Amino acid sequence: MAEFRKQPRFRTVIDPALVERVKQLVLVARDIVITCHVSPDGDALGSSCALWYVLKALGKTAHVVTADCAPRSLQFLPGVRDIVAATRQADRAHELIAKADLIFCMDFNDPSRVDRLTDALTSSKAKKIVIDHHLDPCIESEILISRPEVSSTSALLYLFLWQAGWTRYLNRSAAACIYTGMMTDTGNFSYNSNDPDLYLIVHDLMRKGIDKDNLYKLVMNTASESRVRIMGYAQYKMQLLPSHRAAIITLSEEELKEFDYNKGDTEGLVNVPLSIPEVTYSVFLREDDKNCVKVSMRSKGDFSVSLMCEENFDGGGHTNAAGGEFHGPLGKALEKLLEIIPNYDKYLQ
Ligand code: 5GP
Ligand code: MN
Fold it and tell me: How far apart are CA 84 and CA 69, in angstroms?
């Protein structure tokens, strides 16, 4: 009779030795800080808050400390109200990081991604554990769990918790946080979402009592009037470069003012041109001020916008979603973009 072999439940397996070491570090830690990238998105906040609930359930003292606040659309997320954001509570944020003996870095790969907390993070003596899915991690850490093939840090956190035997510490709030991160980093399971593990995780989270349909509504249906208007205006003025299979959207400081722009109002805008079959990649330039243009890019297939951002806009990210910055006015940023675009034609399939 063939020997029965127990198959691992998930395809993605984290090195069990790493999982054990994380458990040990957590068990001996006295003051734990969890942090994530600036302008936190659903995955950054979801993974951070979920971990916070688990650590609390383990009887640990833990705080989520971030560079800035959650966007309006994520204010509903359980745990968000307890976050210490440096824009609002600078002293407390620095104090908690200085006091911490263990710091979890969730959903970012580079210390500069915590913005105003970068110095505090790099000079901290705390042991650091990175759980992330961005390419090329460069945070000095005790333990690195970096899996770029996993679509969200929240899913990766779940896989860690499962291997650690800690999913029993996930309450409904923490489950909602993990689901939100998985949903937002996959466009509600419409890209990077072919991994069957994801649906086993969703199954488990639903068994914890989450209302997934309501979570979608809470994240998606919170637009302000300014968001609806600015999204329409920006799409109307989109430029297409058919010979380069590119789309460009720009918004100047003046336009942002005119539309009463609030942070988060253009979330997802850069994805919209990808719905045109002829467009392989899309670029959004937002002039935050005359010396800083935020660059956002999205692409399809193997075309790497991360490479474009790295090589030209002091940024990076993933193959299909990347960003960076340009120091100068919008006109100059656009000029540079138009100049470099032909260099990437060779990567178009
Ligand atoms: P978004 O376009 O939503 O701002 O960012 C998409 C992805 O690009 C992020 O998840 C992050 O990986 C990356 N990214 C965005 N801005 C920057 C940046 O200024 N520097 C780096 N290294 N990566 C960025
Ligand atoms: Mn993420």
Answer: 8
